Amino acid sequence: MSIVEFLAAGLFLLFAAVFGALARRMAGGVIEQWIGAPTGTQTARMFQALMMGGLAAAAGAADFVPLGVILLTFIGATAGFPTGMVPRGARDVAGLALHGLMACGPLALGAWWIGLPWGWLVLAGLARAPAYDAAARWPLHWPALGLLRQDPPPTGEVLSGAALGVAIVLTVWRV
Asked: Taking the CB of the first residue and of the last residue of the chain, which one, N or C, has fewer CB atoms within 10 A?
């Protein structure tokens, strides 16, 4: 791999992190904030799923894989939170890790089924707990994305979405 290819790969992974973060914020409801009207949670989750499928296609996934990413991301996004979104103790951290596994589990299972490296998706799911913990400690402030210091869960969505975006690319990328 040449230095140019290495830098291009790094830039694409950075793009995947930003795009994944934005996609997860879509599922978190930022689209309702932008248009000023309720869209419903399923619509917001479908936006996330479509964006993640597009990311898989941009990464050069095989023909049907982006459609599977759309379907399995949507299924995973419907998982409810078993505990609070702001970790206040070990139970909440474990609940967030479980939520991440429930959200990324369908993708990991699909990747395993077709012979793709599924470990990245499991790690992205497990990263949800430290993402929300970091968000509770250091919430971002960017009102255009619904990120306010007094409301840490949207920052957790951004961080966990970035992890999922990178994981999807690392899973489907054909070198």
From this structure: C
Domain enclosing residue 74, as ranges: 3-172
Helix then strand count (H, E) for the chain reads 8, 0
Q: Are 70 and 53 in contact (CB under 8 A)?
A: yes
> Helix 41-58 to helix 3-27 angle, to the nearest 10 degrees?
170
CA 75 to CA 174: how far, in whole Å?
Answer: 25
pLDDT tens per residue, range 88-120: 888 888 889 999 999 999 999 999 999 999 999
**Residues 3-38, buried b or exposed e (16+ Cβ, 10 A)?**
eeeeeeeeebbebbbebbbbbbbbbbbbbbeeeeee
Side chain identity at residue 1, one-letter code: M
Q: What are phi and psi of 29, to 5 degrees?
A: 105, 10
Domain count, the chain: 1
In angstroms, the CA 70 to CA 66 distance is 6
